[in-house]
Amino acid sequence: MKASWLIPLTFALVPVVIPATASAVTIYPIDRATMLTGGKFDFKVEFDKQVDPDQVSVKINGKSYQQVWNQKSEFIKDEDGLNASSLVIKNVDIATPGDYNVEVSAGDEKGTVSWNVYQTPEKRQAKNVILFIGDGLSVAHRTAARVMSKGITEGKANGRLAIDDLTNMAFIGTSSTDSIAADSANTMSAYMTGHKSGVNALGVYVSRAKDSLNHPKQETLGELIKRTTNMSVGIVSDAELEDATPAAVLSHTRRRADKAEIVSMFYDVKPDVLLGGGSAYFLPETTPGSKRKDNQNYVERFQQAGYQLVTNAAELKKQGSGADKLLGLFHTGNMDDVLDRRFLKNDVTKKFPDQPDLTEMTQTALDVLSKNQDGFFLMVESALIDKASHPLDWERAAYNTIMLDQSVAIAKKFAETHPDTLIIVTGDHTHGISIVGTVDDDKPGNDMREKVGVYETAGYPNYADKDGDGYPDRVDVSKRLAVFFNNFPDHYETFRPKLDARFVPAIQNEKGEYIANAIYKDIPGAVLRTGNIPRNTDTGVHSVDDMIVQASGPGAERIHGYMDNTELFRVIVDSLSLGHGKQG
Description:
Alkaline phosphatase, 14 helices, signal, 31 strands, alpha/beta, 6-stranded mixed sheet, globular, Alkaline_phosphatase
């Protein structure tokens, strides 16, 4: 009898014939893209090899692309020396809602994608939309802000954040086209275009093009509003205005670091209000502090286009609200954390001592934009929640969250007299941050780890707000929140707030690896924490956790359950009834 173990060997000797398969092509917009009727986009097909243009067939619901778009196309025989061809048709749209199937072929190169094109309601619900972005805003940031700002007694909060009472809530997925993880560029871009994108990309699909400015564009909400309505557009951020979140309102680039080019995109579209940091990219290279590589002076160009320029809090207060178009530049880079600027008053703000608060910028933006009887879209970003969370500086992040909440309160006050205003509050992505209890300096000994209270030993922190400004009077109280991050480089955990400047957890060694910053080593009770992320990373990274969005006002009922981040774009355009052509 033949041994059974010989049977597999017999079959293994039989040759296996694998049928030939067609080479794939890449199509942009991608499969399952959802698009607004009349919304502009670039169509691109990337073949895996060089093909004959006469062989190329592109059919959209059975019709050739020439029939669908009576527009010039560009065939690239050898794109960027990659020995592969591409077909590009720029600035097209689809006017009729419905499901679309796109079939592409060229010889044995084949591909297909499906799109859904939707129409907004004809009746406009909202006159104004205010979108607040807490960059990196996570549940723990909100909890810490509530505890520190309002207090908590016998398990119940002593007060509520302005965000807490927004009527509708949902979870938002934040992943990008190329990764489960995300950054502020592709996440905010999804809000502003309704299309997915890749990490570091703004308003484009990430294609194989080598030029960062030559990827397939997706029309942004700011562009759409300016092209099809008489509404005003405002952008407010305490980061550089060229940073990912504010830039996403109007910009198109594969590389979010194209900050000089982003300024030129702002100028091309001309939002009515621009308030934030980042003057270094508006100023010509001959000006001290400039980061441009040319002599373009965008401060002068905006002024010549009718913008009132303000450069500090005093000028904003005196001249801002009276302007019809307003450009406020308050720092060459990112503006400074509210904890340093308003409370610690340390050397951090020495270079720019009179920066406005996010609340002041929000109020001024509303004063200017509300002059337009056709309504407005305003994006307000509290960017420094993220900027402080990366280096594990949770106290600064929490103070910045309180500042965001106070800005939301201003918008809610505005909505009381303008009930046709939709207010949305969310973040672009989350951070791995949690509150586990308290740290009590009065516990005996020098081991700070043993001063961490958990469960019933945590009790309550002793923050106080005696002056009633909504912030704790001191950040360095004796019994404070114990907050930790779940991803981090090597660093020394001090269990204390950093009073001189933002925490710098890790620095590079001679090998280029990030190691714990020794300046914190001798702080009593400091503990070395060995990192759990790659050694080429100097700070904590974003988490993939769902984002929370809340909203109130006309159109807020569309926010519920679980949503992809691209769906927030549809909530906004539905409420404003965009996609019906030029209004007014």
